Amino acid sequence: MSRTRLNFYLNNQLVGNANNWQGISISLDFDNDNVQPVIETDSLEFVLSESAVIRKWVQDGVDGSGPGIYEPMELRIELASGNNTVDVFSGLLDMVNDMQFIDKNKVLVKLIKKGGLDQLAERTQAISFAFLASRNEINNNDFVNVSYVLAHIPNFSEVLIISISIFILIKEIQEQIKRVLDTIAIVAGVAVSGIPGPVGALIISIALAITEIAYTILIFIALKALMTELILNLIAPLRNHKAMKLRVLLEKGAAHLGYTFESSEFDNPFFDSLVILPIKERGPISFGAGETGFPTNKGGLYTYFDMLQFFKQLINGKLVVRDNKIIIERRDFFDKPTSFVLPSARVILDESRFNAEEIQANLNIQFLIDEKDDTTLINYEDNNTTFQRITEPKIITDKRNVQIKGLEQVNLPVSLPTRKESLTEVEDILLDLAKLVDTLVGGNFFSSKITGRLGVLHLANDFTGVPKLIPIALGKVRSNYRDIMSAKVLHEDYYFISSFTPVPVNHNQFRRHLRVKIPFCFEDYITLSEDNGFTTDDGREGRFEKIEGSPDSGFAEVDIRIKEVFTTNLKDRIV
Fold this sequence. Notes:
By secondary structure, the protein is of the alpha+beta class. It is built from 14 helices and 28 strands. β8 and β9 form a beta hairpin.
């Protein structure tokens, strides 16, 4: 087996090792959204030629031949064995904070990790979607229209007058058609008869027929106008708001930072149909009020950081930065088993503890209620806006002694939509009338104005106070929208994995072993650089929490947990 070593690169040029490299340990911490190996050290000590390279970089900033200390040198450190390598650090020398020059041949400098999760958080907090739009990185091509109708209360006095007028016109049309037919019959009779003065009589009859037909056309025009007015008075017109697909919002922020965004959740076409309808304060597109489809500083999704945190929360996810990708998957996605086998014969596992304190007695998942849109309140239960799971003992001898406690609160900064599923009684009556008018004038113009409202977003008014998360298809709310997104669905698809109650395929009960010394080599770092699962040589399933060791020692100190049921006296109750 090849000897393990560290290689140091300053500005991508291989240099000699830092003087204190043997004191460097390498750590993989899997409990902090981090599955890449990183070095653990306060600072590095460079001497001789490497010290001279750093000093020259500083001097170049003085004499104007280089950028100097405010654009620090890049440092990359790789763990190597033979021809195999893996990066354990990629970042910068911290030349601004406490860089020390010791004698003439030594420099002591701290490090700044580039592309790490802390740096990503800082950068994403500074990026709003309005900023991306100002740079045309978000534009009109990224918006989708969400059709909606209002819960409209008609002016019944006007409706009554219009309805009576329409009824009178329909009766008049029926009578007028009869008169037109009678007049045409007279014209035909005069044309073929031999009565005196036939030419004059024919001319008079034709003129009368033309007058009757023109009158009939005017009645039809009046009928269409009255029907249009009736529809406008009885039901609010179909309107549109601009929105953006959730996936596109996540991709746009990542692209600005030089990453791509990735999540297998969007492989599901129903999940990929989710859009974010931001807070609306200006009315619909048809009002020409300069509406935008991206989240603004009103609401909880203003920055790209907010959007990443929301998506993590939505799918009970974990964020990983890997290979220039921002990846968010359900938390257990990265707990995949690897080829690593824990050699229990060579590992002392005498000391252990259960993870019993991690249990949460209550899980509450809740979407927001929009005070400006009371449809979210009316449909509170039907939409499964909230979900609660209570974990409790099956057998209790003394309630005062029960030690199950804790609350996991999942507050999502969006509200759920309400879909227009059916016509109101008024719309049903209007539809019958519209079909009659369509029969008289031809086509289905008026009836389609009513039936086309089915399936669209139902709002109380044009303005909203909370962003909405909506599954759409062709601008309408998907018919199975409650099966795609609700608090209950989030539990069934994502949050069930946090339950401590033993079921055949899932539970969260573990025996933990902390600071265990195990044999560990370069190949093991490679094996576990992306996933942290392992099996014991007697077939038990486990995962690493943390691995820390020096590159060439052949050992590592690890925190591990191995699945083990320590109680079956639990049950989950849904309320």
